[in-house]
Specification:
2 domains; about 80 residues; alpha+beta
């Protein structure tokens, strides 16, 4: 399988209103967002083990694997799919 990088565009929140807690215990949200022409490039390649490599000028300040939001999402997806 070839590595096919895709752009994950940056999102700018122009407006966000969080309402009071409803009867289900959730806050209703109203927001307006815009997507930029810049963002992160994400690539997925087959592997025996789940890993994440962060590159770029700000990579040093970012978490690679531990509590990274991308890794948390992938782990949740794998768990839900029983992988």
């Amino acid at each position: 399988m070839a590595n096919a990088p895709v752009l994950a565009p940056a999102k700018v929140n122009l407006f966000l209103h969080v309402g009071p807690v409803d009867t289900d215990g959730y806050h209703p949200l109203a927001s307006l967002v815009a997507f930029a022409d810049v963002g992160d490039r994400i690539s997925v390649v087959p592997s025996e083990r789940l890993s994440l490599t962060v590159t770029g000028p700000f990579a040093k300040g970012l978490s690679g694997e531990g509590d990274n939001l991308v890794m948390r999402a992938v782990r949740s997806l794998a768990e839900a799919a029983a992988l």
